[in-house]
Structures are given as structure tokens and as C-alpha cells.
């Protein structure tokens, strides 16, 4: 029955994404509403301990992918304000919100500060979802600023939450030492983990059969847990690890982008659905008024104060301040931290979970829906805003493909300009490397023997999947130790690629000698395709 329900939920979630794209409603709100609807039809779920573990796991992968997709070329110019917003901004937001909850709403001071800490961070999943779905190219590098802020501020909100939970539970805590450990250990473990990751990657080929994705999952889990065991912030560690390995190029990386994009989406769907399932509609309604006033205060007063203070260190124009303010959406991390608070068995005077739940629902629904229109109103949309990407990034999710080849001494392209070559094949020479130096290719660039050229063109996808066949040669295979030109190959069959024993890709010619252990990819034209 559980498997059946899971399948139904995933299909409904996919429909929710389509509705979101069509009507502009944040999809994550629809996932939560989907969870709430299941409680209304009688599904009873109140397992907070399990929810806390799953929420931590989901946030782990969501935050890793947030770092993995961060392009440092784009993030570097806004790194300083992003870090200030993610650290000092979270602390100020938590304290200002806590003061409001205590003096205006009458909450206990420490519980008010805990509530402010829980909702202190902005939500990466929601912010990035709105930016991508609305295709918001914002001026002044604001999009990478928002993504980097929302991707890196959860660890600081988590640390603040742990501090006030410790105070409420009566535990003795050295706040300065806790903060130092959380940050320094998280940074160190992410760096050490990244170095070990690439050392192993150089010695062992994980790129075949999807093993690289499995290796990366293992690395994420280990880095998170080791950091947590040593007193560091596991979320910060996996986020920085994602940035570290995401900004380097290595074999098989393209496939991992698709894999972790899917994993991140599934985790978001499952997390928000579970949070909706965990809630009680009657308690959401009874706590909606304080949740609304807190959300309104954070949006109109707390966050603008923080943004204006940051603008003293990093000059922001008024329209940028307005856009960054409206983009301070609260989401999954806050609800996950609220679950952690509930599991501490502290006798709260307020319903922490459902107040935080209401804040996040309202924030995502109202701010998420207004983000695009407000950005347009204040003239923050820049249609000419350039997005810096590596060649691999363009291959990650588009139909363009890049291949590398070398110009041989007897090649008939020698002495020709690129303007003469490109129209023949409907391709573009994207990069030229000569004697180890990179040359920006122009139409009048003349090709010389020994040049390595990177060619870009439209990727081909075989929808039938029937034309390619892979075979492995063995010792007594009739083709073993023969040249391609000498083997008995059907006239309607071509060897298009060869993978040798060291997993090197070889483009075969007639003089290529086939050896035992080689994997051959054959293209055969059958009667159906002739």
C-alpha cells in the first residue's frame, strides 16, 4: 500500500509542477498542500523523530546540489555581501524577529529568540525555483547573490537554533566555542573531503556505469556525518563540498548533474509533502494570525533593516534593495529546524511547529508569487545579463555537445581558415589549443598541424535506440589483434567508437589494431532504417 501511495504522490507532484509553471504558483506550496490534503482524507502521520531524520537527509542533498550548481565565476563578485547576509544577516534577523515576537506578540523572550532563529534563513529550494522557473535575469549580479545567500545561510540559522535550544533545555553551552567549531570544522572537512575526493578520482575510474554518482553520495554522507561528529556544521560542509567539486571539471560530471538534479527534486517533493502530512489543518488555522504578522514584520521591517545595514559594506541601489528584500523567502530549512525543536521535548508555551509552518507557507505563497512582478516593477530585469558558464555547463542541460580532435600533419584542413571549415560541417570551433596555449578562434584563424580543436554542434539523440550495439572482444574472437581494415565487417556496419582496457576513448581508423578486452560500439543499419 505504501508503494502505491508513493507512486500516486509522485505523479500528483509532477502535475503540481505543471500547474505551477502554468499559473505561477510556487510548486513547493502545492507539494505542502498535497500533504495537507492527505491528512484531510484520513492519513494519520505524526512521527516527528523520523521526520527530523528525513528532513536532515533531504536538506543535505538539497544544499549539496545548491553548492554543486554554484558557478564561482558568477558568485565571486557578490561573495562578500552573500556571506554577510548569510551570517550576520541571519543573526540580526533572528534577534530583531525575536524582539518583535516578545514585545508585540507577548511570547516568552527565549522562545521568541528561538522562533526568530528557526525562521532566520532564506530557503534555497524556493528562491532558486522561482529564479529558474521565471527565468529572472536580475541586474547587478543579484540572482547569484540570492542563490549564494540562501544556499549558505541555513548553517547559521541551525547554529542559532541549537544555541537557544540549549538555553531552554538548561544545558551549559559555550556560545563562542560552538559557533567557532560549527564554522571552522565545517569548512575544514569540506576542503579535506574535496581533496580526498579528487585523489581517489584520479586513481579509480568511477565514471563507468553510473558509479560516480554513487561515489558522490557516499562522499556527501561521510562529509556530513564526520563534520557533525567533530562538532562542525554538516550542512555547511556539504554545501562547500558541492561548490568545491562543482567548479572543477572531470570525466562523467555531466551525468551527475542530471542525477543530482533529479535527486534534489525528489527530496524537495518528499520533504514538502511530508511537512504537509505532519501538520494538523486545525492548528494551522489557529496559528495563522501570529504567523501572518511575523511574516509581514520580517518582510517589511526585519529584512529591509538587514539589507540596508549590508549596503554600508556593499553598495546597493534602491531597486536592488527592494528585490533582495522581497526575495527573503522562508521554507524547508525553517520547518525542519522546527521539527528538531519539537523533538527536544521542551514544554513550549507556543506551537512552534505550526507557527513556523504558517510563516513558511505564507512567505512562499506571497513573496514567491510577487518576486517576478516586483522585480519588473522596480526595473531589475536585465535581458542582456550574461550568465558565465563553462563548456561542460552548457552540455549539462542543453542539446549542444563539444568534442575534441587533433589536426594531423597530412590532414587536408591544414592551411584553411576556420571560416572555410565551419560551413562545410555546420559546426563551430569553440576553442583552439596550439603548443599548449589557448587561442580564441576567429574566422581568419588558420588551422595548423598539431592543433587541438574543440568543436561544438547540436547533440544527436537516437530515439529508436536500436542502431547501436556494444560488444567486448575476447582472446579468441576473430577480430582480436587485427586492423579494422582487415576484419570481416558487414558493409552496413561501422565501428564508431572503441573503449580500450584503460577506458580511453579511441576513434578508430582503418589502421587501428583491435585487442582483447576492447569494447566496440557498432552502428548497424537494419532493413527497417534503410
Number of strands: 8
CATH architecture of the largest domain: Up-down Bundle
Structural class of the secondary structure composition? alpha+beta
Mean pLDDT: 81
Number of domains: 3
Domain RCK C-terminal: 389-471, 472-530
Transmembrane segments: 28-45, 54-70, 82-105, 112-131, 178-200, 212-245, 257-279, 291-314, 321-340, 352-372
Subcellular location: Cell membrane
Membrane topology: Multi-pass membrane protein
Task: Please specify the SSE layout and strand pairing.
Blueprint: H1 2-23, H2 27-40, H3 48-68, H4 72-75, H5 79-103, H6 109-118, H7 124-133, H8 142-152, H9 154-169, H10 175-203, H11 211-229, H12 234-246, H13 253-278, H14 281-286, H15 288-310, H16 318-326, H17 332-342, H18 352-377, H19 391-396, E1 400-406, H20 418-425, E2 428-434, E3 437-439, E4 452-458, E5 468-472, E6 493-499, E7 505-506, E8 519-524
Antiparallel strand pairs: 1-4, 2-3, 2-4, 5-8, 6-7, 6-8
Helix pairs in contact: 1-2, 2-13, 3-12, 3-13, 3-17, 5-6, 5-8, 5-9, 5-15, 6-9, 7-8, 7-18, 9-17, 10-11, 10-12, 11-12, 15-16, 15-18, 16-18, 17-18
Characterise this structure.
The protein has 530 residues and is of the alpha+beta class. The protein folds into three domains: 1-29 and 48-378, Na+/H+ antiporter like fold, CATH 1.20.1530.20; 400-458, Regulator of K+ conductance, C-terminal domain (Alpha-Beta Plaits, 2-Layer Sandwich); 468-524, Regulator of K+ conductance, C-terminal domain (Alpha-Beta Plaits). Helix content is 58%, strand content 8%. The chain has helices at 2-23, 27-40, 48-68, 72-75, 79-103, 109-118, 124-133, 142-152, 154-169, 175-203, 211-229, 234-246, 253-278, 281-286, 288-310, 318-326, 332-342, 352-377, 391-396, 418-425; strands spanning 400-406, 428-434, 437-439, 452-458, 468-472, 493-499, 505-506, 519-524. The strands form two sheets. A four-stranded antiparallel sheet has the order 1-4-2-3. A four-stranded antiparallel sheet has the order 5-8-6-7, with no helix packed on it. Helix 5 packs across helix 8 (142-152), helix 6 (109-118) runs antiparallel to helix 9 (154-169) and helix 17 packs antiparallel against helix 18. The longest helix is centred in the middle third of the chain and has 29 residues, at 175-203. Residues 386-395 have low confidence and may be disordered. This is Potassium/proton antiporter.
